[in-house]
What does this fold into?
Amino acid sequence: HVPHTTIQRLPVYLRCLLQAQAARVRVISSGDIAEMCGTNPAQVRKDLSYLGELGTRGIGYDVDDLVGHISEVLGITERRKVALVGFGKLGAALYGYSGFAERGFEFVAIVDVDPAKVGTQTDGITIRHLDDACEVVRASGAEIAIISTPADGAQAAADVVVEAGVKAILNLAPVRLVVPPDVAVRQVCLSTDLQILSFYLAQHDGG
Amino acid sequence: HVPHTTIQRLPVYLRCLLQAQAARVRVISSGDIAEMCGTNPAQVRKDLSYLGELGTRGIGYDVDDLVGHISEVLGITERRKVALVGFGKLGAALYGYSGFAERGFEFVAIVDVDPAKVGTQTDGITIRHLDDACEVVRASGAEIAIISTPADGAQAAADVVVEAGVKAILNLAPVRLVVPPDVAVRQVCLSTDLQILSFYLAQHDGG
Ligand SMILES: NC(=O)c1ccc[n+]([C@@H]2O[C@H](COP(=O)([O-])OP(=O)(O)OC[C@H]3O[C@@H](n4cnc5c(N)ncnc54)[C@H](O)[C@@H]3O)[C@@H](O)[C@H]2O)c1
Ligand SMILES: NC(=O)c1ccc[n+]([C@@H]2O[C@H](COP(=O)([O-])OP(=O)(O)OC[C@H]3O[C@@H](n4cnc5c(N)ncnc54)[C@H](O)[C@@H]3O)[C@@H](O)[C@H]2O)c1
It folds into this structure.
């Protein structure tokens, strides 16, 4: 069993290891990983120990090996299909973000309610109406849904994608979603990031 | 000294405590806070212990008192001024997000390079050109900058806001910013959220 706090750090380790791989580093120590990721070596060793016997004491970890292990644990060795509900300013920015495709996440369905958007195409995907979303999302094979509707539309959007068989939701709308226990939800809240930055400002001011 | 991992959780505790406050809860236990925030009671007690002697064993914490303490530590008892660099799809979505104002973050300057945007007004703020950004951001009193430019414009945008006296940056562009040691940077990476969701999918599939 991998603790939730460890899972949160694995993508960060992966990002740093991919940078090391691109720089043709073959072996890396827990100290190097910690430095690249802004954590400490003991935390890195503890987190990676949940993935099995991976490193060699005194020498370090094989970079290719570690990239493979973490990718497998994160279930990203194959492409993951994503449905987008709400194609407004935020939805369009996420759809256009190259970082998702680079990590194997592929948009396969877009849903909205705006008559001016429904029926139009963007990069080969036709924007469909919420009323048709259950069949569209099911037929698309989407496993993850990103919800970027206004707050008052988010729960209904979640209900529809869950009915379509989606088991993982990234929610950007500022409401707490109610979903069955076998559906994972991650809530994005950029205000939390601003509050953390505000903490450092307060410290800087001697507060 | 408050550890970085504790700081990351304080905004989440605050969000839950504000919900409790709205529901007229006067006293709350570490167990209740843990349940609302998806963590465990020992972690809550340990985190809050860094803020001083706040709870009473066996009774719990005074909700109003805790809200006050955490707000003070996070430096959000006063409004924080924010500059936005890059007014594209993502920038416009952040500018229009009511969650920031609700938590005391106020936009005071917007910067872009697109001639079709520069000089136009949105809600009383005139979009200014990057060339004028240093004076504009300094004059606005912005303490935090949000960077939502394309990747190739992000470092130059950071240099300009740092020169203007900004000490905290929320970076949405997919590049690692180089800033002086007294400037705090938080990197937003929604792909990390998708990778964490993918982990739960892999577990669900019995992977
Ligand atoms: N989590 C954060 O930090 C953060 C930051 C910025 C914005 N947001 C939130 O993201 C959401 C989207 O913001 P935006 O700026 O793109 O808004 P927007 O108004 O530009 O876009 C919303 C889109 O959703 C569509 N829509 C409306 N109701 C719908 C429904 N029931 N089902 C499907 N689609 C529906 C609209 O037609 C529109 O295309 C909002 O809830 C906003 O509060 C969150
Ligand atoms: N972190 C994440 O998870 C995530 C998600 C989505 C998008 N993004 C990133 O956010 C950024 C913005 O995305 P978008 O969809 O809004 O793009 P966009 O093209 O719609 O908007 C970019 C805006 O920046 C302006 N601009 C260009 N160069 C500039 C410069 N040097 N200085 C100031 N302004 C400049 C443009 O005129 C435009 O208004 C991109 O870097 C994108 O990769 C990140």
Remarks:
- Chain A touches chain B through 59 residues (CB under 8 Å).
